[in-house]
Amino acid sequence: MTKYVINGGKTLNGEVTISGAKNAAVAIVPAALLADGPVRLENVPKIIDVTLQMEIMRELGAQIRQINATTVEIQNTQNPSLKPHELERKLRASYYLLGVLLGKYGFAEVAMPGGCNFGGVRPIDQHIKGFEALGAKVTLPKGGYIRVEAPEDGLHGAHIYFDVVTVGATMNIMLAAVLAKGQTIMENCAKEPHIVDLANFLNAMGADVKGAGTDVIKIRGVESLHGGSYSIIPDQIEAGTFMAAVAACGGSVLVKNVIPRHLECITAKLREMSVEVTEFDDAVLVRREGKLTKTNIKTLPYPGFPTDMQPQMTTALCLAEGTSIITEGIWGSRYRYTEELTRMGANIHVDGAIAVVEGVKELNGAPVRAHDLRAGAAMVIAGLAAKGVTEVEQVQNIERGYETLVEKFVALGADMYRSEIPESAENK
Ligand code: EPZ
Protein backbone atom coordinates (compact mmCIF):
# COMPACT_ATOMS: atom_id res chain seq x y z
CA MET A 1 0.00 0.00 0.00
CA THR A 2 1.20 3.56 -0.64
CA LYS A 3 1.15 6.54 1.70
CA TYR A 4 2.16 10.18 1.43
CA VAL A 5 4.67 11.49 3.99
CA ILE A 6 4.40 15.27 4.40
CA ASN A 7 6.68 17.53 6.44
CA GLY A 8 4.40 20.56 6.70
CA GLY A 9 4.62 24.23 7.63
CA LYS A 10 6.04 25.58 4.38
CA THR A 11 4.42 28.16 2.09
CA LEU A 12 3.61 27.21 -1.52
CA ASN A 13 5.21 29.22 -4.33
CA GLY A 14 5.54 28.86 -8.10
CA GLU A 15 3.32 27.59 -10.93
CA VAL A 16 1.08 24.55 -11.37
CA THR A 17 -0.66 23.36 -14.56
CA ILE A 18 -4.11 21.86 -14.11
CA SER A 19 -5.03 18.57 -15.83
CA GLY A 20 -8.19 17.69 -17.74
CA ALA A 21 -11.42 17.50 -15.74
CA LYS A 22 -12.01 14.10 -14.10
CA ASN A 23 -15.80 14.46 -13.99
CA ALA A 24 -15.89 15.38 -17.68
CA ALA A 25 -13.41 12.67 -18.74
CA VAL A 26 -15.30 9.84 -16.98
CA ALA A 27 -18.32 10.63 -19.18
CA ILE A 28 -16.60 11.67 -22.42
CA VAL A 29 -14.19 8.71 -22.61
CA PRO A 30 -16.99 6.08 -22.60
CA ALA A 31 -19.11 8.35 -24.82
CA ALA A 32 -16.52 7.79 -27.58
CA LEU A 33 -18.11 4.32 -28.00
CA LEU A 34 -21.20 6.05 -29.44
CA ALA A 35 -19.21 7.16 -32.51
CA ASP A 36 -18.72 4.92 -35.57
CA GLY A 37 -15.33 6.44 -36.46
CA PRO A 38 -12.12 6.96 -34.48
CA VAL A 39 -12.30 9.53 -31.67
CA ARG A 40 -9.20 11.45 -30.58
CA LEU A 41 -9.43 12.92 -27.07
CA GLU A 42 -6.91 15.49 -25.75
CA ASN A 43 -6.31 16.74 -22.18
CA VAL A 44 -7.40 13.38 -20.76
CA PRO A 45 -6.22 13.19 -17.11
CA LYS A 46 -3.99 10.19 -16.27
CA ILE A 47 -6.02 9.11 -13.22
CA ILE A 48 -7.15 5.71 -11.95
CA ASP A 49 -10.86 6.27 -12.68
CA VAL A 50 -10.14 6.93 -16.36
CA THR A 51 -7.58 4.11 -16.63
CA LEU A 52 -10.11 1.67 -15.14
CA GLN A 53 -12.80 2.83 -17.57
CA MET A 54 -10.52 2.30 -20.54
CA GLU A 55 -9.76 -1.22 -19.26
CA ILE A 56 -13.49 -1.96 -19.17
CA MET A 57 -13.91 -0.48 -22.67
CA ARG A 58 -11.12 -2.68 -24.03
CA GLU A 59 -12.95 -5.68 -22.51
CA LEU A 60 -15.99 -4.55 -24.47
CA GLY A 61 -13.95 -4.66 -27.66
CA ALA A 62 -12.79 -1.07 -28.14
CA GLN A 63 -9.31 -0.37 -29.49
CA ILE A 64 -7.67 2.40 -27.44
CA ARG A 65 -4.28 3.89 -28.34
CA GLN A 66 -2.34 6.23 -26.01
CA ILE A 67 -1.01 8.84 -28.47
CA ASN A 68 0.88 10.81 -25.79
CA ALA A 69 0.65 11.47 -22.03
CA THR A 70 -2.79 13.10 -22.26
CA THR A 71 -4.11 12.13 -25.72
CA VAL A 72 -5.92 8.89 -26.57
CA GLU A 73 -7.53 7.55 -29.73
CA ILE A 74 -10.58 5.32 -29.27
CA GLN A 75 -12.04 3.15 -32.05
CA ASN A 76 -15.18 1.25 -31.14
CA THR A 77 -15.95 -2.19 -32.57
CA GLN A 78 -19.45 -2.87 -33.79
CA ASN A 79 -20.40 -5.80 -31.58
CA PRO A 80 -18.77 -5.77 -28.15
CA SER A 81 -19.26 -8.76 -25.89
CA LEU A 82 -21.50 -7.12 -23.33
CA LYS A 83 -20.68 -8.69 -20.01
CA PRO A 84 -20.58 -7.48 -16.43
CA HIS A 85 -17.16 -6.54 -15.20
CA GLU A 86 -15.91 -6.67 -11.65
CA LEU A 87 -13.90 -3.47 -12.25
CA GLU A 88 -17.15 -1.52 -12.52
CA ARG A 89 -17.79 -2.01 -8.82
CA LYS A 90 -14.91 0.33 -8.08
CA LEU A 91 -16.22 3.12 -10.22
CA ARG A 92 -19.13 5.41 -9.52
CA ALA A 93 -18.70 6.71 -13.02
CA SER A 94 -19.02 3.23 -14.55
CA TYR A 95 -22.72 3.93 -14.66
CA TYR A 96 -22.13 6.13 -17.72
CA LEU A 97 -21.57 2.86 -19.60
CA LEU A 98 -25.28 2.19 -19.03
CA GLY A 99 -26.29 5.27 -21.02
CA VAL A 100 -23.64 4.71 -23.71
CA LEU A 101 -24.30 1.01 -24.33
CA LEU A 102 -28.07 1.41 -24.10
CA GLY A 103 -27.93 4.28 -26.57
CA LYS A 104 -25.56 2.49 -28.95
CA TYR A 105 -26.59 -1.19 -28.72
CA GLY A 106 -29.95 -1.14 -26.92
CA PHE A 107 -28.59 -3.25 -24.07
CA ALA A 108 -26.22 -3.02 -21.11
CA GLU A 109 -25.60 -4.79 -17.86
CA VAL A 110 -23.33 -2.89 -15.48
CA ALA A 111 -22.30 -3.49 -11.87
CA MET A 112 -23.99 -1.26 -9.29
CA PRO A 113 -21.83 1.87 -8.98
CA GLY A 114 -19.01 2.04 -6.45
CA GLY A 115 -17.02 5.25 -6.02
CA CYS A 116 -16.79 7.51 -2.99
CA ASN A 117 -18.23 6.01 0.20
CA PHE A 118 -19.56 9.14 1.86
CA GLY A 119 -23.09 10.25 2.65
CA GLY A 120 -24.54 6.77 2.70
CA VAL A 121 -26.06 5.14 -0.37
CA ARG A 122 -25.56 6.81 -3.75
CA PRO A 123 -29.03 6.51 -5.37
CA ILE A 124 -29.59 6.11 -9.11
CA ASP A 125 -33.39 6.33 -9.17
CA GLN A 126 -33.30 9.35 -11.50
CA HIS A 127 -31.08 7.47 -13.97
CA ILE A 128 -33.62 4.61 -13.97
CA LYS A 129 -36.52 7.06 -14.33
CA GLY A 130 -34.86 8.60 -17.40
CA PHE A 131 -34.01 5.28 -19.06
CA GLU A 132 -37.59 4.02 -18.57
CA ALA A 133 -38.98 7.26 -20.01
CA LEU A 134 -36.91 6.60 -23.16
CA GLY A 135 -38.64 3.20 -23.40
CA ALA A 136 -35.98 0.99 -21.80
CA LYS A 137 -36.76 -1.93 -19.48
CA VAL A 138 -34.64 -1.68 -16.32
CA THR A 139 -34.11 -4.71 -14.07
CA LEU A 140 -31.88 -5.30 -11.06
CA PRO A 141 -30.84 -8.91 -11.47
CA LYS A 142 -29.16 -10.53 -8.48
CA GLY A 143 -25.48 -9.93 -7.85
CA GLY A 144 -25.72 -6.16 -7.73
CA TYR A 145 -25.99 -5.53 -11.47
CA ILE A 146 -28.28 -3.15 -13.35
CA ARG A 147 -29.64 -4.34 -16.71
CA VAL A 148 -31.17 -1.96 -19.25
CA GLU A 149 -32.80 -3.07 -22.52
CA ALA A 150 -34.29 -0.95 -25.29
CA PRO A 151 -37.59 -2.03 -26.98
CA GLU A 152 -37.46 -3.86 -30.34
CA ASP A 153 -37.94 -0.62 -32.29
CA GLY A 154 -35.28 1.19 -30.25
CA LEU A 155 -35.38 4.08 -27.77
CA HIS A 156 -37.73 7.01 -28.39
CA GLY A 157 -37.50 10.63 -27.24
CA ALA A 158 -39.26 11.61 -23.99
CA HIS A 159 -39.99 14.57 -21.72
CA ILE A 160 -38.13 13.97 -18.45
CA TYR A 161 -38.29 16.08 -15.29
CA PHE A 162 -35.56 15.29 -12.74
CA ASP A 163 -36.87 15.26 -9.16
CA VAL A 164 -33.44 16.36 -7.95
CA VAL A 165 -30.62 18.19 -9.73
CA THR A 166 -28.26 15.32 -10.55
CA VAL A 167 -25.03 15.48 -12.55
CA GLY A 168 -24.91 11.74 -13.17
CA ALA A 169 -28.47 11.34 -14.40
CA THR A 170 -28.26 14.46 -16.58
CA MET A 171 -25.15 13.03 -18.27
CA ASN A 172 -26.44 9.45 -18.47
CA ILE A 173 -29.77 10.32 -20.09
CA MET A 174 -27.99 12.65 -22.54
CA LEU A 175 -25.75 9.71 -23.52
CA ALA A 176 -28.73 7.40 -24.09
CA ALA A 177 -30.87 9.97 -25.93
CA VAL A 178 -28.51 11.28 -28.65
CA LEU A 179 -29.23 8.26 -30.93
CA ALA A 180 -32.88 7.77 -29.85
CA LYS A 181 -35.73 8.42 -32.30
CA GLY A 182 -37.30 11.89 -31.91
CA GLN A 183 -36.84 14.69 -29.40
CA THR A 184 -35.93 14.37 -25.72
CA ILE A 185 -36.51 17.27 -23.32
CA MET A 186 -34.84 17.10 -19.90
CA GLU A 187 -35.86 19.59 -17.21
CA ASN A 188 -34.29 20.51 -13.86
CA CYS A 189 -30.90 19.51 -15.28
CA ALA A 190 -27.52 19.91 -13.59
CA LYS A 191 -25.47 22.80 -15.09
CA GLU A 192 -21.89 21.91 -14.12
CA PRO A 193 -19.09 22.74 -16.61
CA HIS A 194 -18.64 19.01 -17.25
CA ILE A 195 -22.27 18.74 -18.42
CA VAL A 196 -21.56 21.44 -21.03
CA ASP A 197 -18.30 19.71 -21.96
CA LEU A 198 -20.09 16.40 -22.61
CA ALA A 199 -22.73 18.14 -24.76
CA ASN A 200 -20.01 19.98 -26.72
CA PHE A 201 -18.20 16.68 -27.30
CA LEU A 202 -21.36 14.90 -28.50
CA ASN A 203 -22.22 17.81 -30.83
CA ALA A 204 -18.66 17.71 -32.24
CA MET A 205 -19.40 14.07 -33.15
CA GLY A 206 -22.65 15.04 -34.92
CA ALA A 207 -25.22 14.96 -32.13
CA ASP A 208 -27.91 17.64 -31.65
CA VAL A 209 -27.87 18.69 -27.99
CA LYS A 210 -29.07 22.20 -27.06
CA GLY A 211 -29.32 24.01 -23.72
CA ALA A 212 -26.53 22.27 -21.77
CA GLY A 213 -25.57 24.56 -18.88
CA THR A 214 -29.18 25.61 -18.36
CA ASP A 215 -32.07 23.86 -16.54
CA VAL A 216 -33.53 22.58 -19.82
CA ILE A 217 -31.66 20.41 -22.31
CA LYS A 218 -33.26 19.50 -25.68
CA ILE A 219 -31.88 16.62 -27.73
CA ARG A 220 -32.88 15.67 -31.26
CA GLY A 221 -31.93 12.04 -31.91
CA VAL A 222 -29.65 11.46 -34.94
CA GLU A 223 -28.99 8.31 -36.99
CA SER A 224 -25.32 7.98 -35.99
CA LEU A 225 -22.30 9.83 -34.62
CA HIS A 226 -19.07 10.18 -36.61
CA GLY A 227 -15.51 10.23 -35.26
CA GLY A 228 -13.50 13.39 -34.65
CA SER A 229 -11.29 15.03 -32.04
CA TYR A 230 -12.04 16.93 -28.84
CA SER A 231 -10.13 18.49 -25.95
CA ILE A 232 -11.50 18.05 -22.43
CA ILE A 233 -11.90 21.17 -20.23
CA PRO A 234 -9.51 21.79 -17.31
CA ASP A 235 -10.53 20.43 -13.91
CA GLN A 236 -12.22 23.15 -11.83
CA ILE A 237 -11.97 21.02 -8.66
CA GLU A 238 -8.27 20.27 -9.07
CA ALA A 239 -7.70 24.01 -9.61
CA GLY A 240 -9.79 24.81 -6.54
CA THR A 241 -7.83 22.26 -4.52
CA PHE A 242 -4.55 24.07 -5.25
CA MET A 243 -6.20 27.43 -4.52
CA ALA A 244 -7.40 26.15 -1.13
CA ALA A 245 -3.90 24.77 -0.44
CA VAL A 246 -2.38 28.24 -0.93
CA ALA A 247 -5.05 29.66 1.40
CA ALA A 248 -4.10 27.13 4.08
CA CYS A 249 -0.30 27.27 3.66
CA GLY A 250 0.28 30.84 2.50
CA GLY A 251 2.45 31.80 -0.47
CA SER A 252 1.91 32.79 -4.10
CA VAL A 253 0.97 30.33 -6.85
CA LEU A 254 0.02 30.82 -10.51
CA VAL A 255 -2.61 28.14 -11.30
CA LYS A 256 -2.44 27.61 -15.08
CA ASN A 257 -4.73 25.96 -17.67
CA VAL A 258 -7.98 26.97 -15.98
CA ILE A 259 -11.25 28.61 -17.08
CA PRO A 260 -11.64 31.41 -14.46
CA ARG A 261 -15.40 31.55 -15.01
CA HIS A 262 -15.67 27.95 -13.72
CA LEU A 263 -13.86 29.03 -10.52
CA GLU A 264 -15.99 32.09 -9.72
CA CYS A 265 -17.63 30.76 -6.54
CA ILE A 266 -14.33 29.40 -5.23
CA THR A 267 -12.59 32.72 -5.99
CA ALA A 268 -15.39 34.67 -4.29
CA LYS A 269 -15.12 32.61 -1.10
CA LEU A 270 -11.30 32.80 -1.01
CA ARG A 271 -11.49 36.60 -1.33
CA GLU A 272 -13.88 36.62 1.66
CA MET A 273 -11.13 34.70 3.50
CA SER A 274 -8.65 37.54 2.73
CA VAL A 275 -6.91 35.52 0.01
CA GLU A 276 -5.85 37.56 -3.06
CA VAL A 277 -7.01 36.04 -6.38
CA THR A 278 -6.08 37.70 -9.69
CA GLU A 279 -7.76 36.35 -12.83
CA PHE A 280 -6.09 36.07 -16.25
CA ASP A 281 -7.43 34.53 -19.50
CA ASP A 282 -6.47 30.94 -18.64
CA ALA A 283 -4.85 31.25 -15.20
CA VAL A 284 -5.43 32.61 -11.71
CA LEU A 285 -2.75 33.98 -9.34
CA VAL A 286 -3.52 33.06 -5.73
CA ARG A 287 -1.64 34.81 -2.89
CA ARG A 288 -2.01 34.67 0.89
CA GLU A 289 0.43 36.62 3.02
CA GLY A 290 -1.57 37.85 6.02
CA LYS A 291 -4.13 36.13 8.22
CA LEU A 292 -6.94 33.95 6.88
CA THR A 293 -10.39 35.18 7.94
CA LYS A 294 -13.57 33.20 8.44
CA THR A 295 -16.44 32.78 6.00
CA ASN A 296 -19.57 30.66 5.65
CA ILE A 297 -20.07 28.12 2.84
CA LYS A 298 -23.15 26.28 1.60
CA THR A 299 -22.61 23.71 -1.14
CA LEU A 300 -25.14 23.79 -3.98
CA PRO A 301 -25.46 22.65 -7.59
CA TYR A 302 -23.43 24.76 -10.06
CA PRO A 303 -23.12 27.74 -10.21
CA GLY A 304 -23.32 27.40 -6.41
CA PHE A 305 -20.31 26.39 -4.34
CA PRO A 306 -19.23 22.87 -5.41
CA THR A 307 -19.61 20.07 -2.88
CA ASP A 308 -16.36 18.57 -4.20
CA MET A 309 -14.53 21.60 -2.77
CA GLN A 310 -16.13 21.39 0.67
CA PRO A 311 -13.46 19.24 2.43
CA GLN A 312 -10.59 21.32 1.03
CA MET A 313 -12.10 24.69 2.01
CA THR A 314 -13.19 23.45 5.44
CA THR A 315 -9.58 22.41 6.04
CA ALA A 316 -8.30 25.88 5.16
CA LEU A 317 -10.95 27.45 7.42
CA CYS A 318 -9.58 25.43 10.37
CA LEU A 319 -6.71 27.96 10.31
CA ALA A 320 -8.84 31.09 9.79
CA GLU A 321 -9.52 33.73 12.45
CA GLY A 322 -13.08 33.36 13.73
CA THR A 323 -15.86 30.81 13.38
CA SER A 324 -17.03 29.49 9.99
CA ILE A 325 -20.25 27.61 9.27
CA ILE A 326 -20.29 25.00 6.51
CA THR A 327 -23.55 23.56 5.18
CA GLU A 328 -23.41 20.48 2.93
CA GLY A 329 -26.34 20.95 0.58
CA ILE A 330 -25.77 18.01 -1.77
CA TRP A 331 -24.64 14.87 0.09
CA GLY A 332 -26.43 15.09 3.44
CA SER A 333 -23.29 14.74 5.49
CA ARG A 334 -19.83 14.65 3.91
CA TYR A 335 -17.78 15.24 7.07
CA ARG A 336 -16.12 11.93 7.95
CA TYR A 337 -12.73 13.54 7.21
CA THR A 338 -13.24 16.05 10.06
CA GLU A 339 -12.43 13.25 12.55
CA GLU A 340 -8.94 13.17 11.03
CA LEU A 341 -8.62 16.97 11.18
CA THR A 342 -9.65 16.94 14.84
CA ARG A 343 -6.77 14.56 15.55
CA MET A 344 -4.49 17.20 14.00
CA GLY A 345 -5.79 19.85 16.43
CA ALA A 346 -8.72 21.30 14.46
CA ASN A 347 -11.79 22.50 16.36
CA ILE A 348 -14.82 21.35 14.34
CA HIS A 349 -18.31 20.49 15.55
CA VAL A 350 -20.47 18.50 13.11
CA ASP A 351 -24.23 18.15 13.38
CA GLY A 352 -25.81 16.49 10.30
CA ALA A 353 -25.26 18.69 7.27
CA ILE A 354 -23.71 21.51 9.33
CA ALA A 355 -20.06 21.84 10.44
CA VAL A 356 -19.03 24.67 12.78
CA VAL A 357 -15.30 25.41 12.43
CA GLU A 358 -13.53 27.41 15.16
CA GLY A 359 -10.23 28.65 13.74
CA VAL A 360 -7.09 27.48 15.59
CA LYS A 361 -3.55 28.88 15.55
CA GLU A 362 -2.01 25.78 14.01
CA LEU A 363 -2.52 22.14 13.10
CA ASN A 364 -0.09 19.40 14.13
CA GLY A 365 1.06 16.56 11.89
CA ALA A 366 -0.47 13.10 12.53
CA PRO A 367 -1.12 9.78 10.75
CA VAL A 368 -4.44 10.15 8.83
CA ARG A 369 -6.47 8.29 6.18
CA ALA A 370 -7.91 9.39 2.85
CA HIS A 371 -11.48 8.14 3.27
CA ASP A 372 -12.46 9.29 -0.22
CA LEU A 373 -11.13 11.38 -3.08
CA ARG A 374 -11.77 14.92 -1.86
CA ALA A 375 -11.35 14.01 1.83
CA GLY A 376 -7.92 12.72 0.80
CA ALA A 377 -7.11 16.02 -0.89
CA ALA A 378 -8.13 17.75 2.33
CA MET A 379 -5.72 15.53 4.30
CA VAL A 380 -2.89 16.57 1.98
CA ILE A 381 -3.75 20.26 2.46
CA ALA A 382 -3.89 19.78 6.25
CA GLY A 383 -0.53 18.01 6.22
CA LEU A 384 1.07 20.72 4.09
CA ALA A 385 -0.19 23.44 6.48
CA ALA A 386 0.48 21.56 9.75
CA LYS A 387 3.61 21.75 11.86
CA GLY A 388 5.48 18.46 11.86
CA VAL A 389 5.00 15.24 9.88
CA THR A 390 1.69 13.90 8.51
CA GLU A 391 1.35 10.45 6.94
CA VAL A 392 -1.68 10.02 4.66
CA GLU A 393 -2.77 6.41 4.05
CA GLN A 394 -5.21 4.97 1.46
CA VAL A 395 -3.88 7.40 -1.13
CA GLN A 396 -5.30 5.25 -3.93
CA ASN A 397 -8.53 7.14 -3.17
CA ILE A 398 -6.68 10.38 -4.01
CA GLU A 399 -5.00 9.04 -7.14
CA ARG A 400 -8.42 8.03 -8.50
CA GLY A 401 -8.97 11.70 -9.31
CA TYR A 402 -5.71 13.67 -9.08
CA GLU A 403 -2.90 13.30 -11.63
CA THR A 404 0.64 13.47 -10.17
CA LEU A 405 -0.51 15.36 -7.07
CA VAL A 406 2.74 14.77 -5.17
CA GLU A 407 4.92 15.99 -8.06
CA LYS A 408 2.77 19.10 -8.48
CA PHE A 409 2.98 20.04 -4.80
CA VAL A 410 6.73 19.29 -4.58
CA ALA A 411 7.23 21.67 -7.53
CA LEU A 412 5.55 24.34 -5.37
CA GLY A 413 8.02 23.79 -2.52
CA ALA A 414 6.20 21.13 -0.51
CA ASP A 415 8.34 18.66 1.44
CA MET A 416 6.40 15.46 0.67
CA TYR A 417 6.94 12.07 -0.96
CA ARG A 418 5.15 8.78 -1.74
CA SER A 419 6.28 5.84 0.36
CA GLU A 420 5.44 2.22 -0.47
CA ILE A 421 4.45 0.21 2.62
CA PRO A 422 5.24 -3.53 2.21
CA GLU A 423 2.01 -5.60 2.47
CA SER A 424 3.23 -7.34 5.67
CA ALA A 425 3.92 -4.05 7.53
CA GLU A 426 0.46 -2.85 6.54
CA ASN A 427 -1.29 -5.51 8.64
CA LYS A 428 0.49 -4.59 11.90
C1 EPZ B 1 -21.12 13.67 -9.46
O1 EPZ B 1 -21.60 12.58 -8.70
C2 EPZ B 1 -19.64 13.72 -9.19
N1 EPZ B 1 -19.03 12.47 -9.63
C3 EPZ B 1 -19.39 13.93 -7.69
O2 EPZ B 1 -18.00 14.14 -7.55
C4 EPZ B 1 -20.10 15.20 -7.22
O3 EPZ B 1 -20.00 15.29 -5.82
C5 EPZ B 1 -21.58 15.17 -7.62
O4 EPZ B 1 -21.71 14.91 -9.04
C6 EPZ B 1 -22.27 16.50 -7.33
O5 EPZ B 1 -21.65 17.51 -8.06
C7 EPZ B 1 -18.81 12.31 -10.95
O6 EPZ B 1 -19.11 13.17 -11.76
C8 EPZ B 1 -18.16 11.01 -11.35
P1 EPZ B 1 -25.39 13.61 -8.40
P2 EPZ B 1 -23.11 12.02 -8.98
O7 EPZ B 1 -26.14 12.61 -9.20
O8 EPZ B 1 -23.44 12.23 -10.40
C9 EPZ B 1 -29.02 12.72 -5.45
C10 EPZ B 1 -15.84 13.77 -6.87
O9 EPZ B 1 -15.34 14.08 -5.78
N2 EPZ B 1 -29.41 11.73 -6.47
O10 EPZ B 1 -25.25 15.01 -8.93
O11 EPZ B 1 -23.21 10.69 -8.39
C11 EPZ B 1 -27.75 12.32 -4.71
O12 EPZ B 1 -28.06 11.51 -3.60
C12 EPZ B 1 -17.21 13.15 -6.89
O13 EPZ B 1 -15.34 14.00 -8.00
C13 EPZ B 1 -30.63 11.08 -6.34
O14 EPZ B 1 -31.37 11.31 -5.38
O15 EPZ B 1 -23.94 13.06 -8.09
C14 EPZ B 1 -27.18 13.66 -4.28
O16 EPZ B 1 -27.82 14.07 -3.08
C15 EPZ B 1 -17.70 12.82 -5.49
N3 EPZ B 1 -31.00 10.18 -7.29
C16 EPZ B 1 -27.61 14.60 -5.40
O17 EPZ B 1 -28.67 13.94 -6.10
C17 EPZ B 1 -30.21 9.90 -8.39
O18 EPZ B 1 -30.62 9.08 -9.24
C18 EPZ B 1 -26.49 14.91 -6.40
O19 EPZ B 1 -26.03 13.68 -6.92
C19 EPZ B 1 -28.98 10.58 -8.51
C20 EPZ B 1 -28.60 11.49 -7.54
Automatic annotation (TrEMBL):
The active site is at C116 (proton donor). Pathway: Cell wall biogenesis; peptidoglycan biosynthesis. The keyword Lipid biosynthesis does not apply. Residues 7-408 form the Enolpyruvate transferase domain. Keywords: Cell cycle, Cell division, Cell shape, Cell wall biogenesis/degradation, Cytoplasm, Peptidoglycan synthesis, Pyruvate, Transferase. Gene3D superfamilies: Enolpyruvate transferase domain (3.65.10.10). It is an enzyme of class 2 (transferase). It is found in: Cytoplasm. Its main location: cytoplasm. Phosphoenolpyruvate binds at K22, N23. It catalyses: phosphoenolpyruvate + UDP-N-acetyl-alpha-D-glucosamine = UDP-N-acetyl-3-O-(1-carboxyvinyl)-alpha-D-glucosamine + phosphate. The keyword Chloroplast does not apply. Its EC number is 2.5.1.7. The modification 2-(S-cysteinyl)pyruvic acid O-phosphothioketal is found at C116. It comes from the Bacteria. UDP-N-acetyl-alpha-D-glucosamine binds at R92, R122, P123, I124, D125, Q126, D308, I330. Cell wall formation. Adds enolpyruvyl to UDP-N-acetylglucosamine. Belongs to the EPSP synthase family. MurA subfamily. This is UDP-N-acetylglucosamine 1-carboxyvinyltransferase. It comes from Butyricicoccus faecihominis.
